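Reopening this one. Same input as before:
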Amino acid sequence: MRFRTAAALVFGLALTIPVSGAGAHDVVVIDDGAIDNAAETHIHHQHGGEEGHLPPGSANVRLVGRGSINQDGKEGRVADVGVFGGYAYLAAFWEPICQKGGVYVFDIANPSKPKQINFIRTSNDSYVGEGVQVIHIDTPAYSGDVLAMNNEICNEDKGDEKHPNGGMTLVDVTNPKVHKYLAQHAGDRAADGSINEIHSVFIWDAGAKAYAVQVDNEEATDVDIMDITDPRNPVMVAEYDLAAMVPGILQPNQGLDSVFHHDVVVKQIGSRWVMLVSYWDGGYVTLDVTDPAHATYIGDSDFAFPDPEAAESGLTVDPEGNAHQSEFSLDNEYIVAADEDFNPFKAKATNDEGTEFTAIQGSDVPGIPQGGSIEGDTVYVGRACPGDAAVPAATGPGQIALAERGVCTFQEKLDNVVAAGGYEALLVFNREESTVGDGCETLISMLVAGDLPAFFVTRETGYDLLDLSYDHAACLAGDGTRTAPAAVGTHGDGVSLESIFDGWGYVHLYDNNAGKLVELDTYAIPEAHDPAHAEGSGDLSVHEVAMSHRDSRLAYFSYYAAGFRVARIVNDELVEMGHFIDEGGNNFWGVQVFEHDGRELVAASDRDFGLYIFEYTGP
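Same output, byte for byte:
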């Protein structure tokens, strides 16, 4: 919280970002389980363990009311929340099983007694997550209150088959009890005619026209903007691949290579409409979208080395990235941003020559025991795919399988290594470059589940462990199909993987300037950087921020198992002012500010219950 950056280089750019057509992304490549889009940030299990919570209690926060969704089996069922016109709208997520998705509607005319009065279905096999919002649209083509919700796909039985039920759904909720569908599954269309699933959607009325911006899971670096002046007939305006068009926003080869669009808001600031994009490892990016067909770059953030919030607790670690969600302060002077991180540990990896390398833990596998290590000699097992040479069994204790990315999924590689038997862990090194552009030195996170620890490393690291000569230029020139020149069963260097505690996801405070955003401060709850709370207290990452509509210095946070939190900006620092955790714990996903009878209230969505409504009572 006391972190200050040195004066950042501030540069003014008015870079026009050209429209990128969908065809630029039409490549045939296996989805091997790289966590490279927004949907997958919530599909994998939460690393620290969902059980447990912090002690109940509150300070400067009054519980106004709460209401449960009308459904059995609520655990994990609720996602985001939006509020408009005396009603709250809660997203129906895919958990605990893939079932009917949509939006629960609550009457909050009496906020002390919220009552569910409707459920708005989306199509079969789709669900709603981050994208729940209602605004009033008043254009020459349409007038009414419009609910926007995203559609993601959850029917695992259909495998990788493309579905027509992605995109956004727009609903007339002028009468929330009797909704009318305006458009269903509008979004970017793939070559086969299906609609790309989206993780979030944000809509705004710019006067004569209205627009929607979508988080596209299929073309994950894209920012898709549609004209919804007539919400019954959405029309694509532009697609912007920010990673390609503004490469200066990236921090390549620093463990910050999972770059994709995750969340977005748009706000009128002066005479301009400004978009704030949360771009995961690409940071936070501001764009002028006054003319959505010709968006221009304004500014972006970088992640500081070493991680500034961890440094306050005496930890010297690299940043995680994970730019999840953000908002402008009421007076637009600040950007408050929430980095989501479910894994409070990372691996410190060295070979037997003492050379350190970066190893990224898989999503749903054991980490290194706290305070312990995994050590052993590496054994090259090829690509470990069905149809390839069989993975040899470990020939002795303390051996670590070293596999190469390609052809099959990370899950298949792990399953084949486990079936071979005897290995302590799995390391997967990257393939050559490919049309996807994530080979060689790119570090990605693997979507993989099992009981064997598994980690991802660069191609150069894999070659070094096998004592092979690595040619980076040749790797970049490759087509992603050539394998390392080593026989399956070759023994490589020994490695040591140590467990390093680096804390949970936290909050950034930025000056809202042009060019590189100046980071002013960071904020996390104390328990998030205490190894004693790495397990057994639930997930202690921040999830979302909502800025006060009355006070330019007040911010509200949904903080998963750490409950509802309130912070104030004081002398360019974030200072916690209040909190609430209910008896039995909470698991808050969304947070939304609204007005009621001259008071500012805050709605929060509890994943396992439903709706909470709070009032901040502090200074």
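So the earlier flakiness isn't reproducible anymore. For the record, Residues 257 and 327 are 23 Å apart (CA to CA).
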